[in-house]
Amino acid sequence: MTDVRSADSAVAAPPPAGSGPESGRAGRGAGLRTGAGAALLPAAGLLVALAAWWLIARLELVHPAALPPPGDVLAAFVDKPAQMLEHTWDTLLEILTGFALSAVAGVLIGLSLASSRTVERMFTPLLVAVNAVPKITLGPLLVVALGWGQKPILTMVFLLCFFPIVLSTATGLTTTPADLAELVRSWNASRWQAFRKVRFPAALPQIFVGLKVAMPLAAIGAVIGEFQAGESGLGYLILQYAGVGDTATAWAAIMLVALVSILLYSALLLIERTALPWVKETTSSR
Question: What ranges does the record give for the region Disordered, renumbered to this chain (predicted)?
Fold first, then answer.
């Protein structure tokens, strides 16, 4: 009898909450809404910005020579698409190359600072001083030292990008969670094992913070470098067309710089989410 009653109760027992098909459909619906929001909200923000730009130009709150209407900027791009895209490609290569160099050097320097208090005390003031120098003042000196072309441009990108990567790497490697550090000590792990298995993985979210800060700075550095030493690129294009009074084409190039920055930053976010899927699961979400 006991077995019968147990079987009956098992049959009659309702399924646990959140395990039915309705729950699955609700989860999929929530995912779709989240994906739609991720796509629609940036588009809505862009429309608001374009509307504000159009209104400012329409009311002539800013002189049209300084801020042409969005339609004129679009027409300038349509008139010269091949030229615009060619210079965009040059700037993109400079951004990616300079960013890659600064990422490698920044992580290595941050690792050195985190591994030794002596090294940190010796070189942190120097790194802060280098970062504090306005980089645009170094442009003419870089041209004198390195000549025209990509070398001074890549140097400018590097100088703008490396400090946040150094800082985030050093911070991440020196702030390992206490429970993980205690676990490593309980294993009697070597320094290399502790670094490879615990310290570096735990520092990756912080390192990506520095990379995300540095990515837009790479675009800024590339444009500043092209202003000073460029023979091609969007910065060169902005300077040339602004100099002859064609501000619509100059603004088209500025918009392309912004678009490249957004796309590269979004790609970096995607890499972070793919490489560190556990971060979202272990941190609070908004």
Answer: 1-29
